[in-house]
Amino acid sequence: MSLLKVENLVSYIGLFTILHGINMEIQAGEAVGILGRNGAGKTTFLRTVMGLVKTRSGVIELDGQSLVGKPPHKISQMGIALCPEDYGVFDELSISENLALAKHKDDTATQDRITYVLDLFPDLKLAYKRPARTLSGGQRQMLSVGRSLVNETQLILIDEPSKGLAPIVIEKMALALKEISKKSTILLVEQNFNMALAVTDRYYIIDEGRTVHNGIMQELANDKELQHRHLGL
Amino acid sequence: MADLITLLITGISEGAHIFLMASSLSVILGLMKVVNFAHGTLFLWGAYAFQMIFNGISGQVNNTLAWLISLLGAIVAGFILGIIFEKVFIARVYGNIGAQILITIGLQIVFTELVRVFWGARVIAVARPEFLQGVSNFSGVIIVHYRIFLIAVGILVAIAGHFILTGTRAGMIIRAGVQNSEMVGALGININRYFTLVFAVGAALAGLGGALFAPIGGTVSPEIGNSSQLLAFIVVIIGGMGNFMGSALGSLFLGVMMALIGWTIPDLALIAPVTLMALVLIFRPQGLFGLAVKH
């Protein structure tokens, strides 16, 4: 059984239908990239899975359980974590509070995962008690990703982690995500093709709210014509 | 000098009193993005619940006990009304500011009229508790005991509120929710529960404000909610939306300013707070002491 199954997904914001038909299957342990041009519906897709955008029709299942119509907090408790495009970090809370806020349980395993996050992102350990507003863009992204690891998560949705970051920080982030992907299932929306290539094994391309193509990441990297046709590269 | 100190004490006590309304209004606005024009009604119902209980049981039980029971009654009345308002009306219009304004103004009108229906439009006398009656004179400085009590309550609420917001998980969730309630939900927290809790506690504080207000002038009437609400909104603007301590400082500032202007230039007493609000909105919309609410 797939960890995440999406069939004929249609979702909307206000009066506008944004997703017109997304189909996808993700297996546990995979790192899968969601690619596409600006405005294709990639972010809306992640937000729909998280319950932040309303579903009109279609299927979204996590491990066989439907997510459609569930509020975001229930979906989070079912094991999905979101790292949004704008990081979703709480500026007025300290780093320790940002991490503590994400805890679903206050047990040893959770504390061990926080220790793992601080080892993975030493910058966060150094500024542990500082308000998040003092962090750089890269550190905010680390905090956002780190927060998604606080619980025993089945699937991590990461939205454009390279956006607005310096090349050196993007490299560090790609290494961290690759490390995380050894333990977690990742669905990564990314415009930076090299970042997606470094982290993910498979991909889906979304265009105008529909999944139009999918395949093996390395094959896409070798197929310039396909890249040009679907991604404008 | 004695007059000045007397004025400062009066101003600080007015500030403490406004704070009870403004702090909750500010957190409700910051967390829930709800413009609550019914907050004055909760204040009004607190005042009337207080007078009804106090005037009803005074003479039957010890005066201090009667006062404490009445105060508790006002807090409970505010809390229950807060839950009803939030669950039945406000929860349906989250994210729709136009509908919020209309529905909360509607609640203000209906529940103010209900006060007239139940208790009449007349002014009702409310006495201060015996142990808080009296005035002291220290070298010309006039100290009204009840005003010192108001200052103490204001300080206690500010300390308790600060402790809850900074020292508890619920406070952490509320502070995070003020910045980005959607993300709080995405972290697995049922933010709607906190919306109800914050609204109900805010309503209880407004009820307490109404109960404490009644004995200042010695009377209650159906109009008292409107003026208090206006002052609370001014404080929210001055202090910064969603900023609890900002509303404490804003209330203090406004209370002292009103006392001083009311004494020196009485004609400007009503204009000054509104003018201050307009100036803050133009030149510092995030508030004098506040942090801009991040959306």
Please explain how this structure is put together:
The complex is a heterodimer of chains A (233) and B (295). Chain A is of the alpha/beta class and 233 residues long. Chain A has 2 domains: 1-79 and 154-233, P-loop containing nucleotide triphosphate hydrolases (Rossmann fold, 3-Layer(aba) Sandwich), CATH 3.40.50; 87-152, no CATH class. Chain A contains 10 helices and 10 strands. In chain A, the strands form 2 sheets. Chain A has a 6-stranded mixed sheet, sandwiched between helices. A 4-stranded antiparallel sheet of chain A has the order 2-1-4-5, with helices on one face. In chain A, helix 7 (167-181) links the parallel strand 7 and strand 8 (185-189). Chain A is globular and about 45 Å long. By secondary structure, chain B is mainly alpha-helical. Chain B has one domain (2-283): ABC transporter involved in vitamin B12 uptake, BtuC, CATH 1.10.3470. Classes of the chains: A alpha/beta (233), B mainly alpha (295).
What are the key terms here?
heterodimer; A: 233 residues; alpha/beta; Rossmann fold; six-stranded mixed sheet; 10 helices; 10 strands; 37% helix; globular; B: 295 residues; mainly alpha; ABC transporter involved in vitamin B12 uptake, BtuC; two-stranded antiparallel sheet
